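[step 3/7] inverse_fold.run input=structure_tokens len=171
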């Protein structure tokens, strides 16, 4: 489950697929920025996944979520809180558990986009779209990274695919 989108915060801020949205208003204009830019980097000891967040993601009835799902939930929470470094750490932990998780690759792409590491973000988003061709959020993150990597034609094609998959999404 994800937090509610922040109002008036530009730039891609989501991961996952199938309509999961962990963030704010999207790349509606070329001038849109990213949440977290201009913020001070977290202290080195903050580059860990918060155990309390992971433990709070347990479903009712004592059942445990798979570790990769707990990491994804924690990462999505960190991303929506403007903490892409810890979101990235959570995505990488989820990928260690399940390297074929399109949602984990999408979370990684979104975190890298927020960190302005667009080359890496493009690679992660491409992997997410390869694993799940219906993941509109991954196509949005791919378009954003491609645009910042000077690949306007590819970014347009990715954005068109995102719109095709999710025409009701105003991002």
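[step 3/7] decode complete -> sequence:
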């Amino acid at each position: 489950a994800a937090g509610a989108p922040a109002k008036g915060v530009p730039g891609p801020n989501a991961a996952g697929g199938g309509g999961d949205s962990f963030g704010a208003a999207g790349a509606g204009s070329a001038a849109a920025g990213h949440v977290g830019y201009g913020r001070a980097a977290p202290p080195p000891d903050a580059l860990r996944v918060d155990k309390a967040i992971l433990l709070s993601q347990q479903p009712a009835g004592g059942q445990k979520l798979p570790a990769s799902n707990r990491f994804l939930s924690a990462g999505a929470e960190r991303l929506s809180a403007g903490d892409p470094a810890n979101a990235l750490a959570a995505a990488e932990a989820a990928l260690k558990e399940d390297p074929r998780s399109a949602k984990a690759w999408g979370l990684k792409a979104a975190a890298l986009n927020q960190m302005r590491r667009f080359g890496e973000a493009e690679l992660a988003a491409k992997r997410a779209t390869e694993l799940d061709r219906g993941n509109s959020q991954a196509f949005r993150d791919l378009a954003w990274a491609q645009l910042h990597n000077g690949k306007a034609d590819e970014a347009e094609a990715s954005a068109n695919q995102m719109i095709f998959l999710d025409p009701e999404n105003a991002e």
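[step 4/7] annotate
The chain has seven helices and no strands.
The longest helix spans residues 67-80.
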